[in-house]
Design goal:
The chain is mainly α and about 120 residues long. The protein contains 6 helices and no strands.
Amino acid sequence: MTPLLLNAARAFAMVSYADGRLAPAEAQRFAHLASKDAVLGTSGHAEIADAWTLAANEVHAAQSFGGALVTIRTEITSDADKAVLMRVAQAAVVADGKLEAQENVAISSLAEALGLDPKAY
């Protein structure tokens, strides 16, 4: 599994879990999104599922998103990879069919961690 795939799963899980729960629809949405993405889709379905499971477990077990954000900031440095992460994270906002304020805060936190302007997202 590539660092980009795992960090995309972390970003999606972080935003999805910002409302305090991970819905099954969110896991399905990530799998579909990743498999259709030009960059992430080069990984197979098993790798995508493994990335989601690992990231979802990490995010669920943590008391805050700080660890995930530090890892993402450390491993995702190119503009192209940052764009992939923000695109994936934004898709997570509505993956469960609901728009929650906490999810928007998570998007802003992710943008800041990546050195991007949160207002642009």
